[in-house]
Amino acid sequence: MIQDIKGMHHVTSMAGDANVNDAFFTKALGLRRVKKTVNFDAPEVYHLYYGDEVGTPGSVMTTFPFGQMPNGRRGAGEVGVTEFAVPKGSLGFWTEHLQAQGVTGLAEDSAFGEARLSFDGPHGDGLALVESDGRDRTAWTGNGIDNDVGVLGFRGARFVLQDAAATGELLEFMGYQKADTQDNLTRYVVEGGNAADTIDLAEIPDARAAGQGAGSVHHIAFAVEDRAAQLRVRDALLDTGYQVTPVIDRDYFWAIYFRTPGGVLFEIATNEPGFDRDEDTAHLGEALKLPTRYERLRAQIEGNLPTINA
């Protein structure tokens, strides 16, 4: 069994218009844009990162805004809901705030004893706020959301699967433990890591397959402390028969990827070096940062990217 996974690192979604996307995560959810760069494989598209003050692993939502991309189709084989933690007693504030922001799909429910507020993201994303213990996390308040209600980072994620058994076995191999079952939901928790430590598997046998588009989660990343831990995880996955990519330098972390039995794309990302490697903390997310190989094309890339108004 793998013992190096420290919870979630980030979640990356496809998106539509860059300004709509940026306004939603910074104004509606009050997150900080901690990095403005490009998709390393498609530099004509932004890669935007939103999180807490420094982009702590377990707090970062990232997006690829492809402009006019059609919305995806929700279904099986994907991360159906990305869940953010908020302080206990704050959902009343969030219901009023999100209504005022024109957010759709608002619905309150509960799961495993936690109050939840589900809602639609700007491109049909499945999102939820979950009342949770702060666990020493601090919300970013620079976008006008007070600390006593602000987003603390991720709580976890909910996968939608036709058959959850194989993905559950994988999570247990990755160090997660089955914690509880409620109707068709099974919760897995990893101990000893960050506060983004839960994965819920929703088994819906007759669900149609998801179709990727704007609002779809492209991949979910799990955190390891450093490159040595990442290599241990990679070796363990390869020994178990998974097809795992070589280590890829993403400038702010190193990454490996593999596809799960349920169809969800997993990434294992390092907590090092972090988002302040090329920007002062006070100015994270302000300037366009490019991978070294694209610097010579900066004028062309900047000319092709839309201006973000924020």
What's the arrangement of secondary structure elements?
Elements: E1 8-15, H1 18-28, E2 32-39, E3 42-51, E4 60-65, E5 78-86, H2 91-100, E6 107-111, E7 114-120, E8 126-131, E9 153-161, H3 165-173, E10 177-182, E11 185-189, E12 198-203, E13 217-224, H4 227-239, E14 248-249, E15 253-259, E16 265-273, H5 298-304
Parallel strand pairs: 1-4, 5-8, 9-12, 13-16
Antiparallel strand pairs: 1-13, 2-3, 3-4, 5-9, 6-7, 7-8, 10-11, 11-12, 14-15, 15-16
Key structural traits:
310 residues; eight-stranded mixed β-sheet; alpha+beta; 5 helices; globular; 2,3-Dihydroxybiphenyl 1,2-Dioxygenase, domain 1
Task: Write up what this structure looks like.
- It contains five helices and 16 strands.
- Helix content is 16%, strand content 36%.
- The model has no long low-confidence stretch (mean pLDDT 97).
- It is globular, with a radius of gyration of 18 Å.
- The protein has a single domain, classed as 2,3-Dihydroxybiphenyl 1,2-Dioxygenase, domain 1 (Roll).
- An eight-stranded mixed β-sheet has the order 2-3-4-1-13-16-15-14. An eight-stranded mixed β-sheet has the order 6-7-8-5-9-12-11-10, covered by helices on one side.
- It is an alpha+beta fold.
- A hairpin with a 3-residue loop joins strand 14 and strand 15.
Structure, briefly:
This protein has helices at 18-28, 91-100, 165-173, 227-239, 298-304; strands spanning 8-15, 32-39, 42-51, 60-65, 78-86, 107-111, 114-120, 126-131, 153-161, 177-182, 185-189, 198-203, 217-224, 248-249, 253-259, 265-273. The protein is an alpha+beta fold and 310 residues long.
